[in-house]
Amino acid sequence: MAGCVLIGCRSQPGAPSVAPTDKATAVPADPTDPALLRALSVLATGHAPSDLELSQTSRDLESGATTLSRYIDHLLASEAFTSRIAPLIILGHFLSQDALGAGAFTLSHTDGPKSVYYLNAPCTWEKAIEVHPWWNLIAGNDQTVRVCPDSYRPQQWMVKGANGPTNFACLSVYVSTVDKRGGCGCGPNLIRCFESHEQGQLVGDSLVDEIRSSVTHNIAGDLPIEEIFTSNETFRNRYAEYVMRTYVAADTRKPLPDGALSDLASWPEDGKWAPREDLAPGQNAGILTSPQIVHFALDRRQRMTAIYDVLWCMDAESKGATPEAVLSIAGSDLQIKSAGWKELAARPICTSCHARLDYGFQFFWGFPDDNVQAYFQSNLQQTGRGPLYVHNIDDPRGEGELTPQGFANLATSQPEFRRCMARDFASYVLGNEISNDQVASIASHMTPNSTTGRDLMRASLRELVRQWPEQSRAPTLGTSRSAAPRDHIAVTGALKKQLGDHCVFCHDHEAGRPNLAAPQLTRPMVVDMLEAVAFGSMPKGHPLAEPERTQFLSAFINAIWSGADADAAHHYFVDRMRAIPSYRPEIMFELIHDMAHSTVPPRWRMMENAIRGDLLQLTPGMITVTGLEAISACHGQGRSRAEIDACISKALELENLTGRP
Amino acid sequence: MMDRRTVLKIMQAAAVTGAAWPLLREKRARAAAPAHRSRPRFYLQIIPSGGMDAIFTTDPKKAREVDNGIDVPFGSHKIIEAHGVRLGPKFGALGRWVPHVAMVNAFHQNSANHVTGVANITRFKSLTTPGTPSLLELLGARRDDEATGAINIGCVFDSAFSPMYLGQPGTFVFGNRPGLFEHLDAADPEDLVAVAKALQRDAGSVQGPRASAAEQRTADNLNESASLFAGAAKSPKFKPVEWAHEVESAYHSGRDLQRALWLFENKLSRCVTTRVAADDFDTHVTNSYQETLTDYLAFLLDKLFSELDKRVVDGKPLSQQTVVIVGSEIGRFPRLNSARGKDHFPQAPFIFYGPWFATGATYGGTGRNMATVPISMTTGRPQSGGHLLRVDDIGTTLLALDGANPELYGYSGEHLRFLT
To answer: Fewer Cβ in 10 A, N or C end of chain B?
Structure first.
């Protein structure tokens, strides 16, 4: 039975398509360890099991009535996993941050029976125009409101400048900056305006719900994970659907026909899985073309950064740019027109980002820069096929139809996609102690268009079970033995072997690179090398796993420093200020509020929920926001001072902050 | 209820366990620091976010001094000369502070993108990863009796997140929701003390002779946070006043700077990072808005430097104890684009304030195309075949100023001795 706690055990017919890792022969964890059972439950559902549940599960495991593998499957069958945890893992910061999207206006209104809506200044009731606002239509009522003429402007779609029309649409991020004459107004049915800030927030939350619920739909149905990014349909409530329809009006520059909003009154309150109208073939591609993602940023390049972030876990990293290189780019009009993009995409250094970004945004050309026009323009969408690149211009990955759908099909077939999905799930479970090998192992066993999110979570939890005994035996602090410090370091013996094993195949007299095959290295060169290896930027694309990394670093640290300096260097390069991994803040908050019998409050403004799992650790900030949330959770319900203190003390027990034993 | 003695006990214990760890390991480096001058006590990094335009601020040029097409949006008579230093037309409010600041033009940032730029100037390294500690975290770990090492106010790119991150982002994309400081301000002191006690208990359970490095670090972090809670409990509430400028209500950067001062005065943090103008220095459209923002930045620095003179910690004005560093994550391209805006440029100027610097001068230099030129490491002035400034030099210089050995933190930049 012990073998079945390991990755790849098929606990139910046809379930996981992720196979065992090579490490399946490790010593298994004690399956009845309460700390392990608790961590599995918290990670999979966001809830801690009660003492009663824990002891029952332990008994069942001891008696053979269940297995750890079946316990994991039981947790993954929960609604909490599909509706909360899986979206959190896949979508991360897209759930906690606001898309910039269109700069919709918020109306003001006068009070009293003859209330008038306006943007800049009120007008008399008599001068105001009677309009059916969108928010009444989608609620199924025919009530009208009065709006001042300059705040209405149903024929206005583009910003007027001092010298006539501009390229800026009334539905754009920069509208409030460039429409200084207030010429846009709210448009037909006031579709570009909100009645209040609260309504604006409701619409924003609906767009977040669209991507969250769409992921939930996929996970609950055990659908291939690729479909999150490729399906035409998404799960939308009526506000999200209203937003889609305003884009249609903006694209056609015509008011929506009668009934195009009022039919939303019958749209299910909680939303539904529904197709989206393609204004041009292939316009829609899963959540990638949901407003929360496609309109997340200001312009085409930033949009692609957001898309590659969720799809390939690729950051907007740009290193090596020099003033001279940027000055020499033809046209030098990089942001607004994106002119000269092919040249940029092929330039040394620039290519490592721009081949991916700029060839990528050709597929999304129907979505202009949001700062100029924040909606799909069907006439702009390109036709034909185009290439996709990953790391640079020398890394082509085939061709696809130049549409978002064509992009999504091509992008989800890449190994980077599978690795990203594996990394998202595995880093959520294993935190900052995850290794590249663990991610690679899970990714390598994914089957294209078959593996599901539940499979990935199952594999990740089983990996946690596998390494649980190792976590319990964390190494203690070591002290270094050092040689006398030197300004030049002779590369002999162990140092030569380290460089030979990990570096010289790329650093052996190659032009433009440090020569690490030389018989002597300078101190600055060694310092740079230590920095690069310590933080994983070298060996490029293949950071050293432990214990190889520590062995490499220690060898060179001891070669150039001694005594307290060597200890300090070890502390910086080897320990790297790493703390133990933490749960995601959303999970910690839920555990605390569960314990305090209170309700999880609205979203916080915090950095900690905007980063990936492999960076999450018990930082001072993570600890502080959790402490403040404990205060919030423990107040109310008529608690006395002593009860509040006891509640805070209980809420901040370490088991609510980390799953580490 | 906790009495004052209990609060102090928590703070003292936390400060010792939090700060002693790195200090113990650096005795040699500290001993090598110049004995005649004490190191700075506080560090404040100010990021004019989005990309401050050098031509409007520290590197104003006359039309005849630049190539055709380089944007010089003002007549030469508008350039301000203050104490022999050139300032942009809207940077006048900084004029009276020239004797107290050093301006250094044209550091290579190694990136023309905000995300990487923020990573690079929070670490002051050209090559960083998300796991690289920020420079202020390293300096913060060398604190004496301040509750925390480093606090970040307002940075919105996740590249500002680092292994010891503590702070709250701005509202851009994160939304106008309560963050760490709103919650901290609203909390009852008794609650803060209760949290401090719980965290200190947790720290005690993690640390010990058999603790791994990660466990020891976790204990330090728990103690650091406990110290912040305990310190906030006995500090006066934060009460910002209006720093009246036409755009302050849009950005609240004056409020954030007052927050930094509050943290220093109450010894709640050794280092603070704040940003100014919520990324609106990113003027891809209508670069002339830089004038408004430059005026705002100069106004804020004028107010800040005045406050540093007025506010006293342990018997000395903050101005004698504080380093201020001002600089953007990227610069602005020297030519206008078709939207009369300016795109990104991987080079930016920095301003240094504090008695440790050779102030009253501008160092560094740019050519007719506004690209950086090599400088003498002795004078800081342009010199053929000299050194090309890069952000790593700032990291190296500030660590050396603090008495640390920069090498031990992976810094291989040059110590800018002309600046210190």
So the answer is: N
Between residues A623 and B285, the one the model is more confident about: A623
A34 contacts: CB under 8 Å, gap ≥ 6: A54, A58
Subunit contact B192:A335, Cβ cutoff 8 A: no
A253: number of Cβ within 10 Å: 12
pLDDT digits (tens, 9 = 90+) for B283-297: 988 899 999 999 999
Structure tokens at B152: 């970040």
pLDDT bucket at A433, cuts 50 / 70 / 90: confident
Residues B53 and B91: their CA atoms lie apart, in Å, by 12
Alpha-carbon distance of A128 to A110, in angstroms, equals 12
Inform me whether the C-beta atom of residue A316 falls under 8 Å from chain B C-beta atoms. Answer: yes
| B411 lies within 8 A of chain A by CB | yes
Alpha-carbon distances of B166 from B17, B40, B224, rounded to whole Å: 18, 21, 10
Q: Which of B155, B175, B225 is facing A98, going by the closest CB pair?
A: B175
- Asked if A302 and B305 touch (Cβ cutoff 8 Å), the reply is no
How large is the average pLDDT for residues A176-195? 87
Q: Are B395 and B136 in contact (CB under 8 A)?
A: no
Q: Which residues in A lie closer than 8 A to residue B412 (C-beta atoms)?
A: 524, 527-528, 531
Q: What is the pLDDT of residues B49-102, one digit of tens each?
A: 999 999 999 999 999 999 999 999 999 999 999 999 999 999 999 999 999 999
Q: What is the mean pLDDT of residues A307-330?
A: 86
pLDDT tens profile A543-568: 998 889 999 999 999 999 999 999 99
| Nearest CB partner across the interface for A474, out of B152, B212, B334 | B212
A465 vs A470: CA distance, rounded Å: 10
Q: Are A89 and A425 in contact (CB under 8 A)?
A: yes
Would you give the DSSP letter of residue A636?
-
CB contact under 8 A, A476 and B412: no
Kindly state whether A565 is in contact with chain B, defined as any CB-CB distance less than 8 angstroms: yes
ipTM: 0.92
For residue B183, what is the nearest residue in chain A, using CA coordinates?
Answer: A628
Token code pair at residue B38:
């004490």
Distance between CA atoms of residues A304 and A322, nearest Å? 23
* B223/B185 Cα distance (integer angstroms): 20
Q: Do the chains contact at A474 and B372, CB–CB below 8 Å?
A: no
Please classify residue A233 by burial: count the beta carbons closer than 10 Å to its beta carbon, then call 0-12 exposed, 13-18 middle and 19+ buried.
middle
Q: Which residues of A touch B191 (CB under 8 A)?
A: 631, 634-635, 644, 648
Nearest Cβ partner for A335 among B106, B148, B343: B343
Burial of B64 by CB count in 10 Å (0-12 exposed, 13-18 middle, 19+ buried)? exposed
Beta carbons of B407 and A574 less than 8 Å apart: no
Which letter, b or e, does each residue of A39-56 get, where b requires 16 or more Cβ atoms within 10 Å of its Cβ? bbbbbbbbbbbeeeebee
Question: Would the CB atoms of B284 and A602 count as touching at under 8 Å?
Answer: no
Backbone angles phi, psi at A299, to 5 degrees: -145, 180
pTM to 2 decimal places? 0.91
The dihedral region occupied by A501, where left means phi > 0, alpha psi between -120 and 50, and beta the remainder, is alpha
CA proximity to B325, closest of B231, B388, B416:
B416
Nearest Cα of chain B lies from the Cα of A63 at a distance, in angstroms, of: 33
Distance in angstroms (rounded) separating the CA atoms of residues A437 and A435: 5
| Residue percentage of chain A with pLDDT more than 70 | 91
What's the token pair of residue A505? 């195949």
3-state SS, one letter per residue, for A445-514: CCCCCCCEHHHHHHHHHHHHHHHHHHHHCCCCCCCCCCCCCCCEEECCHHHHHHHHHHCCCCCCCCCCCC
Interface of A with B in 518-537 (CB under 8 A): 523-524, 527-528, 530-532, 534-537
Mean pLDDT over B218-233 rounds to 98
